[in-house]
Amino acid sequence: MQKKPQLKIEVDESAICTLSFDDCLEYDNQYGKSYLYTFNVDGVEKVHWASDNAHKTLKECNKGDMVKISHVRKSDGGTMYIVDLIGSTQDNKKEVKKTDTDLSIKWGMAFNNSSRLVANIMDITPKQKVLLIKEIMPEMFEIACNMPNDKEDLFE
Fold first, then answer.
1. How buried is 64 (Cβ within 10 angstroms: 0-12 exposed, 13-18 middle, 19+ buried)?
2. Count of C-beta atoms within a 10 Å radius of residue 65
3. CATH classification of 1-92 is 2.40.50.360, yes or no?
4. Domain residue ranges in the chain
């Protein structure tokens, strides 16, 4: 059996993937459980070892669902994977719980603001617009993460 390539997502990057199977392969190891998922990425089957955090969302998805996997830096300096369902093959899809809604909201803000900046540029192709949005989003995410949490923090 030929070994499938591994899906590698660098920190501050993301990948759009389609789930290849309804279930993952689950393994026990010295650290607990490991979850191996198979995705179709641009026509290529790739495997990804899901963290517990990512597995919580992925286990609610179905074969053919499209997800966005983001590798983000946490405030303590570590990193984590965040999975968002962006397209479902099911009309009555299962409810997918966000595992970190604060970061998901901030990524959404980054996407919306980046898209708005690029939307009115008429002299570039749609593909160029997508690349530009991809380039702007991490900076917009950083701005969103540095926004004050309380009104009082605005005026310090």
1. middle
2. 21
3. yes
4. 1-92, 100-149
What six digits make up the tokens of 14?
Answer: 């993301």
Q: pTM to 2 decimals?
A: 0.55
Query: E strand or H helix at 134, and its extent?
Result: helix 126-145
> What are the pLDDT tens digits along the chain (156 aa)?
568 899 999 999 999 999 999 889 998 878 778 899 999 988 899 999 888 878 888 998 999 999 999 999 988 988 888 898 888 766 444 454 545 567 777 888 888 888 999 988 999 998 999 999 989 988 888 887 777 666 565 555
Handedness of CA 28, 104, 128, 140 (dihedral sign): negative
Q: Where are the beta strands (DSSP E) in the chain?
A: 13-19, 25-29, 32-41, 44-50, 66-73, 79-87
